[in-house]
Known about the structure:
CATH topology of the largest domain in chain A: Tetracycline Repressor, domain 2
Largest interface: A-B, 27 and 27 residues
Helix content of chain A: 55-70%
Oligomer: homodimer
Number of strands of chain A: 0
Largest sheet of chain A: none
Shape of chain A: elongated
Number of helices of chain A: 8
Strand content of chain A: under 5%
Amino acid sequence: MADGKTSASARRPSGQRRADAQRNIDNILDAGLRLYSSRPGVSVAEVAEAAGVGRVTLYGHFPSRTELAKALMDRAFEETEAAWRAVDTSGPADAALDRVLREQWHLMERNRNLRDNIIGDVSPQWLRQRHDPILRRIEELITRGQDEGAFRTDLPLSWLITALYSLVHAAADEITAGRLAAKQAPEVLSASLRSLYRQ
Amino acid sequence: MADGKTSASARRPSGQRRADAQRNIDNILDAGLRLYSSRPGVSVAEVAEAAGVGRVTLYGHFPSRTELAKALMDRAFEETEAAWRAVDTSGPADAALDRVLREQWHLMERNRNLRDNIIGDVSPQWLRQRHDPILRRIEELITRGQDEGAFRTDLPLSWLITALYSLVHAAADEITAGRLAAKQAPEVLSASLRSLYRQ
DNA sequence: CTTAACTCGAACATTGATGTACGAGTTTCA
DNA sequence: TGAAACTCGTACATCAATGTTCGAGTTAAG
């Protein structure tokens, strides 16, 4: 679970948290994710209110804004890891990348926004350390595609990855702006990346 | 000039500003652009200090944070317009777009950062109104390329524009992160957009 | 040189956010 | 049921930012 040293208050002897406490923590993280991934400059008070919880209660579980931010990121990272485990990456890399994209693009997007809006609340090192494993998964997939001769090799690998994220982000922006229907997004994204990646 | 109703203090009868005042205004705008385009959350006090000017002096010229932001954006828009007037957009659209990109990508990038970091200081309507003319220039160029049969037509026009900006932004990020040499950026960008845009 | 424009620091009022302390109430769980 | 865990509002201290006021000094420009 996205825990670690989440709770500031001394937990009960059994090490278990009381049910209402756990419920509140979940609500806080849910609300926090929703707010943080939607806009910058979210305050702790806003998160508490959106979670239907007193501000003091929130501080009881997350001793500081930074700790709350870390918990949110941890949860998002785990969700991403789970999504990767769930997707089928066997077979040709280009088809596999397409599957990954179609199933995870909204998750990638949400987490990217979360990350953007949380910068300043956690150290760059901390962020990088958590984000690296995820980047490596995509990196492997692209490298495999290059080995198979499906993906281009004339551009830096890091650029291909960055461009991927960048276009996912752009697609979400288009949807938000009302210039692209959500249903069309996967197809547009997929077509764009096929063009961009192919040898 | 990026003026309008810039100055709050009553100007002299001649309508002219005194030379030292103009110098300070310029310094403030220079410093503001530098700071705002480099990171979010810039304070008025920081801009004043970076401009080598007292905070009160800054408020004398720009009555509020919002007015300062508007003046910065205005200046950036004018610079972009000037850049467009300076570039040769005649001949085949694909080659013209390539020229635009190579000569303006750093400007596009800086202004995009400025815009990102200034959101919240000005109203979306104001921003959109100023930004639209610039978007229209790119739009025309792409449409021409489609008419000439050089650019794809299977994706929405708005998406092609957004993708362009998005990749420019991504390229700048890569440079900042040290994963891409600044000299290589135009080539990488150009190659990527060729792939993405071609029929 | 004289005046009006301009600059400056210091001080103040206001606002909003963070984080803490307290004490009284409520809920879980054994 | 009873004790510990938990929640809540209120209140407080702190900090940083915005914007204003004042008055004394400096500088440009006719």
